[in-house]
Amino acid sequence: MSLELLARLCRTPGIPGREEQMRQLIRQELSAYAEDFFEDQMGNLFAVRKGSGPSPRTIMIAAHMDEIGFVVRYISKEGFIYFHPVGGFDPRTLVAQRVKVYGREVLDGVIGIKPTHLTTPEERSKVIPLSDLFVDVGLPGEEVRQLVQVGDMITLEREFIPLGQCVTSKTLDDRVGLYVMIEAFRRFQASADDIYAVATVQEEVGLRGAQTAAFGLEPDIGIAIDITIAADIPGMEEKDYCTRLGEGVAIKVLDSYSISDQRLVHFFRQLAEENNIPYQMEVLPRGGTDAGGMQRSREGIPVCTISIPTRYTHSAVETAHQEDIEAAIALMTLFLENSSALQL
Ligand SMILES: [Zn+2]
To answer: Is residue 164 part of a domain?
Structure first.
């Protein structure tokens, strides 16, 4: 697998509403494979390959381009930057992290914290609320205010690295899903159906891009590609793992935003069985994917999500297994080549 491309996807910034650099990167990566591209007013990017069948259906596969991040909401006289989260953060994962601030220039920053020497035991056991966290860019207040303004984008900063049999980075959610979508779109030989690979916007703030993309495209089938929770770590009980790293691609049965069409679940499962692709079934009690946005479009669209199990979700050290990623690509490629066998 191309760790280089996945690393580049992880490195490229794009919080909800600010996906322009991602859009450009994905267009470039698919330019040799897509017959056509178009964008909608929300910023969703559609890459098209027409089907060869007598009456091709419209198949939408979707992975979201946005990452959880922040916008600048206030800059103090001394130049400390306070921020508003876009997407779900656990404040415990944020203190003492590095960030990048996309102002007039790209600035490195750190999320500061009071020195332990000066805190009481009570303070040390308490979680600092997000609204009290601040970014220090190491510049005098006046200079910060010249370079940064309210509304500018801030992202977590963490280098992508291979980690044993896994990979770890910030924002594998959903750069790894985009990577799977790009690879499947590049690898599939031919399809009877029209394939639209859609890089969506604003998923992390409520599946907004997928909803408008599906409304505009009117697909017959919608498949989201996203990460899911692998809680197979110390402190968790096996019954609550959801998925496990290294056990294969996950086929979603449901989460709190969508129930996968059972004909699609069955079809994916059969494809995996017949082709010896390692897979696991996924029931996720909380969370959602673009499938939730697509499913509710117009009079309703049959959807399913293909998930990549990921540990430490929504932190700077999200971790996924390289073999699960390969299994996801293999399953999606087969789906695109064989979708015409699916009767709905
Ligand atoms: Zn996601």
So the answer is: no
CA of 127 to the centre of ligand 1 (A): 25
Q: Between vectors from CA 87 to CA 218 and to CA 309, what angle results, nearest 5°?
A: 75
Q: Alpha-carbon dihedral of residues 45, 280, 314, 114, nearest 10 degrees? A: -160
Task: Check whether 212 has a pLDDT greater than 80.
Answer: yes
Q: What is the pLDDT of residue 121?
A: 84
* Beta strand ranges found along 119-220 (DSSP E): 134-136, 153-156, 161-163, 166-169, 194-200
The DSSP-derived string for 23-83 is: HHHHHHHHTTT-SEEEE-TT--EEEEE---SSSPPEEEEEEE----EEEEEEE-TT-PEEE
In this structure, what CATH number is given to the domain that contains residue 120? 2.40.30.40
- Token digits of residue 25: 């990167």
Q: How many angstroms separate the alpha carbon of residue 247 from the centre of ligand 1?
A: 20
Q: 316 CA to middle of ligand 1, Å? A: 14
Residue 242 gets which letter from DSSP? B
Domain, as residue range, for 312: 3-67+171-341
- In 3D, which of 87, 210, 105, 104 has the Cα closest to residue 156? 87
Provide the 10 A C-beta neighbour count for residue 102: 20
- Do 62 and 184 belong together in one domain? yes
Contact 29, 185 (CB under 8 A): no
For residue 181 the two structure tokens come to: 């979508």
CA of 79 to the centre of ligand 1 (A): 33
203 catalytically annotated: yes
Q: How many Å lie between the centroid of ligand 1 and the Cα of residue 143? A: 36
Q: pLDDT tens-digit profile of 246-282?
A: 999 999 999 999 999 999 999 999 999 999 999 999 9
Catalytically annotated residue among 29, 67, 183, 203:
203
